[in-house]
Amino acid sequence: MKKFLAQITLIGTASKHVADDLLVEFDRCLYGVNNIRSVTLACNPQGVEIFKEIKGAKERRRIKEAFQSLKQKRLIKIEKQAKKISISLTRKGKLQSLRHQILTENKQLSEDDVCVIVFDIPEHVRTIRDQLRHFLKKAGCTQLQRSVWTTTIDIIRPLKALLKSMKAEKWIHVFQGQSVF
């Protein structure tokens, strides 16, 4: 919980996209190591008092506004019970977190490695295909053919999780390999 508090404080002071970065931090906290579904903040120094421990009114305000924005957009669910607050990601929040992770990833694959995304999405789910093309372009991928895209950025793990969450993995294949040319 102390690491989580430190990350939230850092996000409040340094982030340009507080709400999105908070969402990603919740995703890492909830689904990362423990694969739990929600975090309960009890009334103790690490619980509801979390905002009091964050130094500076400006950072507290930014984080509070980000929490309210995430709740309003239905990306997180906050439940209050007696002296406890339970926060969980919604399905929509999980998808948004994965999209943000992919769009902000800057770690390159090792030398000569490339990530290849190949898809054959049926016509009856054309919206998924069109959304995927738009997203891959936005993520900095290069289009080789209509349904073949490449990138040298290491987005394999979050992309796989995103496709699984969208229930589109049966039509899409992601490969990592070396470019020969």
By helix and strand content, what is the structural category?
Answer: alpha+beta
| Rough outline | globular
Q: Count helical runs.
A: 7
| Radius of gyration over C-alpha positions, nearest whole angstrom | 19 Å
Supply the CATH architecture of the largest domain. Answer: Orthogonal Bundle
What is the first-to-last residue Cα distance?
48 Å
What is the β-strand count? 7
* Helical amount: 40-55%
Q: Quick one: CATH class of the largest domain?
A: Mainly Alpha
H/E order of the elements? HHEHHEEHEHEEHE
Largest sheet data? 4 strands, antiparallel
DSSP strand content: 15-25%
Number of domains: 2
Strand order of the largest sheet: 5-6-4-7
Mean pLDDT: 79
Low-confidence stretches: 42-48
Query: In the CATH scheme, what's the topology name of the largest domain?
Result: Arc Repressor Mutant, subunit A
List the helices and strands and how they pair.
Elements: H1 2-14, H2 18-32, E1 38-42, H3 50-53, H4 57-72, E2 76-81, E3 84-89, H5 91-104, E4 113-119, H6 126-138, E5 142-145, E6 148-151, H7 156-165, E7 172-178
Antiparallel strand pairs: 1-3, 2-3, 4-6, 4-7, 5-6
Helix pairs in contact: 1-2, 1-4, 2-4, 2-5, 5-7
Descriptive report:
By secondary structure, the chain is an alpha+beta fold. The chain folds into two domains: 91 residues, Orthogonal Bundle (Arc Repressor Mutant, subunit A), CATH 1.10.10; 72 residues, Alpha-Beta Plaits, CATH 3.30.70.240. The protein contains seven helices and seven strands. The strands form two sheets. It has a four-stranded antiparallel sheet with strand order 5-6-4-7, with helices on one face. The longest helix has 16 residues.
